[in-house]
Design goal:
It is a single chain. With 293 residues, the protein is mainly alpha-helical. 78% of the residues lie in helices and 2% in strands. It is built from nine helices and two strands; from the N terminus they run ββααααααααα. It has a two-stranded antiparallel sheet with strand order 1-2. β1 and β2 form a beta hairpin. α6 packs antiparallel against α7 and α6 runs parallel beside α8. It is rod-shaped, with a radius of gyration of 66 Å. The N terminus and C terminus are likely disordered.
Length: 293
C-alpha cells in the first residue's frame, strides 16, 4: 500500500469491468459472465471471478477489456507473471486510456516482483499516456496520473533507502569480518605463544633427563671399572699367595760385637779397594795416546 494525504492507494487500483458491460451490453452471454465476474471480484472471490472472465472471453477473444480484467484478477491472486504478460499485451494496443491503466497496473506488478527500475518506467509511461488523451479533465485519469507520479517517487525513494541499508549492511559485515580476522589472529598468536612456552618448559626437563642418563651411564662405567680393578687386585693377591715364599733360617745364631766389627772393617776395606780401582781406570781412559810415527 501507498499512503498519501491521508488516503490509501493500493497497487492494482484501477479495474474497468463495467466498461465492458456498458459498451457490449447487447451481447447477453458475455455480459452475464462479466457481470457475475465483477460481483465475485468485489467479494474477493478471485478464483470464481477468473472463471467467469475466461468464459466471457470465449465469446469475445479480441476484447482488450477482458484481458485487463483477467490480468487484474491474476494480480490479486499474486500470479504476477501471468498478470504482467497480459498488461504488456494491452500496452501494445492503440487505446491511450487502456494503455495508461495497463501501464500503471504493470508498474504495480513489477514492483511486487522486486523490479524497481522497470516499475518506475511503467509509471512514467502511464503519465505520458494520460497526457495523450483528448479529454484532459477526466477525474479518473487525472487521479491515475497523480498516483503514477506518486508511485514513481515512492519507488525512487525506496530504492535509495534500500541502497543505503545495503551499504550499511555491507559495511557492518566488513567490520564484523575485520573484527573476526583480528580475533583469529590474536587467537593464533596466543596459541603460538602457548606452544613456545610449553616448548621452553619441556626443554630443561629433557636436558636434565639426558644429563641424568649420561651420569647414570658414567656411574655404571665407573662401577664396572672399580669392580674390574678390585677383581684384578684379588687375582694378584691370589697369585702372590700361590708363589713360594723364601724360607726363614731356623735357629740362626746372633752375631757378636767383635764379629760385627770385623765384618764392617772387611766391608770398608773392600769398598776402598773398589774406589781405588775405579780411579785407576779413569786415569787410564784420560791418558793421552802417544803418536807412533
Amino acid at each position: 500500500m501507498i499512503y498519501r494525504k491521508g488516503k490509501i492507494y493500493k497497487f492494482g487500483y484501477f479495474m474497468i469491468p463495467f466498461l465492458i458491460v456498458t459498451s457490449l451490453g447487447w451481447i447477453d452471454p458475455m455480459a452475464d459472465k462479466v457481470r457475475e465476474g465483477n460481483q465475485l471480484y468485489h467479494k474477493g472471490a478471485y478464483e470464481e471471478a477468473l472463471d467467469k472472465y475466461v468464459d466471457a472471453q470465449v465469446h469475445a477473444p479480441q476484447v482488450s477489456q477482458l484481458d485487463f480484467n483477467i490480468a487484474d484478477t491474476q494480480y490479486q491472486r499474486k500470479k504476477y507473471d501471468e498478470a504482467a504478460r497480459l498488461f504488456e499485451k494491452i500496452v501494445q494496443t492503440d487505446d491511450p486510456e487502456m494503455q495508461a491503466k495497463a501501464s500503471f497496473n504493470m508498474g504495480n506488478t513489477l514492483y511486487r516482483q522486486g523490479k524497481m527500475k522497470e516499475a518506475m518506467e511503467c509509471y512514467k509511461k502511464a503519465v505520458d499516456f494520460t497526457d495523450e488523451l483528448e479529454y484532459k479533465g477526466d477525474e479518473a485519469m487525472n487521479s491515475l496520473k497523480n498516483d503514477a507520479r506518486y508511485n514513481y517517487e515512492y519507488v525512487e525513494r525506496k530504492m535509495k533507502e534500500d541502497e543505503r541499508k545495503q551499504q550499511e549492511q555491507n559495511q557492518k559485515e566488513n567490520e564484523q569480518k575485520q573484527e573476526q580476522d583480528t580475533r583469529d589472529k590474536k587467537e593464533d598468536q596466543h596459541q603460538k605463544e602457548d606452544k613456545d612456552e610449553e616448548k621452553k618448559k619441556n626443554e630443561p626437563q629433557n636436558d636434565k633427563q639426558e644429563s641424568g642418563q649420561k651420569n647414570t651411564q658414567k656411574n655404571d662405567d665407573d662401577a664396572r671399572e672399580d669392580k674390574q680393578d678390585q677383581s684384578d687386585k684379588d687375582k694378584e693377591k691370589d697369585q702372590d699367595a700361590k708363589q713360594p715364599q723364601p724360607m726363614q733360617p731356623q735357629g740362626q745364631r746372633q752375631m757378636s760385637k767383635e764379629e760385627a766389627e770385623r765384618f764392617l772393617d772387611a766391608l770398608n776395606h773392600a769398598e776402598k779397594e773398589t774406589r781405588q780401582m775405579l780411579k785407576d781406570n779413569q786415569r787410564l781412559q784420560h791418558k793421552s795416546v802417544e803418536k807412533d810415527w
